[in-house]
Design goal:
Strand order of the largest sheet: 2-8-7-4-5
Largest sheet: 5 strands, mixed
Strand content: over 45%
Shape: globular
Number of helices: 3
Structural class: mainly beta
Oligomer: single chain
């Protein structure tokens, strides 16, 4: 439309400026009906040209404005087929077709677990038109994955909308050997130690010690190192699990502070540090920063989890005050998505993904255990269960069951049931860890770690610790 207007305007300008028979007093008559003749000076002639030019520019701008794009791309996955079985280390031929009514900006393929958490590397597919078909071999590089159901995730982006599509597969692997249990203990408020337990001999060997307060830790299995986080600025270390030497230390910028780091989250492809000043920073496993998110003013990140490979779900607390919020932030951009204020007095202890829309948060409300389910998209909360005693930890136990640690016992909770039932009636705990390769549950208390067989509930071993337990991790060969 506007191209046609431009052509007519150019023709008009040509005749208007080049035809000597059109004088300043004849312009109106030549461009109107011919029945009315108005006098126009040279200045008026210029003003008319300027007005016509401005009108044409306005028409072009309104005509060129991008229409709203309300439709995400369409994705069709050809291969792999649903429920195909692979072994860790295999290559999977991934093929499909993507189209969109406007454009295709990017297509990404990645492996996720049944909670939609990324578990292997992502591949950026070369966009070759719209629509276009693709096919390539996806190498399973993460050899530490346990048996179970996983998803090939295809993600397409059109510049405005993102579309996800999943193809469920199953991975199997041989049993892994548990090499050691890596233990973090506190010696007072201003020092902590890193030790290892040989599970065959139950020997506890102290490997490292730091003279500042502890903030968090997590093992990066594919790199065979553990990330250790102290509270002061600069106290973020990658420690080799073979010789317990420091591989690298994350440099930090900002004013020196004895309370800089709040907590740590380790995932397959990144680790995230929560900062007291209201930021979350993400790094790859070589220590290069790749992500930053800013919290609302006056809040700090008290807990972090990855949800559906798209969001970081956080528990945010007021630095000064008692306010507690559940928030979700996009992993790609760091921009906030949704936020829900929890009742004052609620203290979360664990975040578990239930499905693509919901997370379950275990915690305590004025000292009484409580589970809440947060729908991220509807930004609504339900409370499926409450308990009279305090809950210290919660972990997934199968597809729809969860283990809850209390002071006197470990409970098992089936989703959508009214009440949990005792799992280990006489064994309380503060930290729970499951061995994904065998039916063994590890329970940490203030100064001990105990291993139980989950089938017959028999105790396998018990070890007392010389210092207060802060956390522990299972290290596999």
């Amino acid at each position: 439309m506007w191209v046609l207007l431009l052509r007519r305007y150019r023709i008009f300008l040509y005749f208007y400026t080049m035809n000597p028979r059109i004088t300043s007093t004849q312009v109106t008559a030549a461009t109107a009906t011919g029945k009315h003749l108005l006098e126009m000076t040279s200045a008026g002639k210029v003003a008319a040209l300027l007005l016509l030019t401005a009108l044409l520019i306005l028409l072009c701008l309104t005509g060129c404005r991008k229409e709203e794009d309300d439709w995400p791309p369409e994705i069709e996955i050809f291969t792999p087929k649903e429920h195909e079985v692979y072994t860790t280390g295999d290559s999977i031929f991934v093929s499909g077709r993507v189209k969109d009514e406007t454009q295709i900006v990017s297509v990404v393929v990645v492996l996720t677990d049944h909670q939609f958490i990324i578990k292997d590397h992502q591949v950026n597919v070369s966009v070759a038109g719209n629509p276009f078909e693709f096919g390539f071999w996806y190498q399973l590089t993460n050899r530490h994955l346990p048996d179970g159901d996983y998803n090939i995730q295809v993600r397409a982006f059109d510049g405005v909308n993102t579309k996800y599509k999943y193809r469920k597969i199953r991975l199997v692997r041989g049993p892994r050997d548990l090499q050691s249990v890596v233990v973090v203990t506190r010696n007072g408020d201003h020092s902590f130690s890193l030790s290892s337990i040989d599970t065959s001999s139950l020997d506890l060997v102290q490997q490292r010690q730091w003279m500042h307060a502890y903030a968090g830790s997590g093992i990066v299995e594919q790199e065979n190192h553990i990330m250790v986080l102290g509270q002061p600025i600069g106290a973020c270390y990658a420690v080799d699990l073979n010789n317990f030497l420091t591989r690298f230390q994350v440099t930090s910028t900002g004013a020196p502070s004895e309370h800089y780091y709040e907590n740590l989250l380790v995932t397959y492809n990144r680790f995230y540090t929560g900062l007291l000043d209201g930021y979350v920073k993400g790094y790859n496993h070589a220590g290069s920063q790749q992500f930053v998110a800013e919290l609302s003013h006056g809040r700090k990140p008290a807990m972090m989890a990855i949800h559906a490979s798209q969001f970081m779900v956080m528990v945010e607390k007021e630095v000064v005050g008692n306010g507690v919020w559940l928030t979700s932030t996009f992993l790609e951009s760091g921009l906030p998505w949704s936020s829900y204020k929890l009742p004052d007095g609620f203290e979360p202890v664990s975040i578990i993904t239930l499905n693509n829309d919901e997370v379950m948060v275990a915690g305590n409300f004025h000292g009484a255990g409580r589970l809440v389910v947060w729908n991220i998209y509807q930004n609504s909360i339900t409370t499926p269960w409450q308990h009279i005693s305090e809950v210290y930890d919660a972990i997934r136990f199968g597809s729809a069951r969860f283990l809850l640690a209390t002071q006197d016992e470990v409970l098992v909770y089936q989703l959508h049931q009214s009440q949990p039932v005792p799992f280990l009636p006489h064994q309380g705990g503060r930290l729970l860890k499951m061995d994904p390769g065998s039916p063994i549950l590890y329970i940490g208390n203030s100064q001990s770690i105990t291993a139980y067989h989950t089938d017959n509930h028999q105790q396998l071993w018990h070890l007392n610790l010389p210092e207060t337990l802060a956390d522990f991790h299972l290290h596999y060969q």
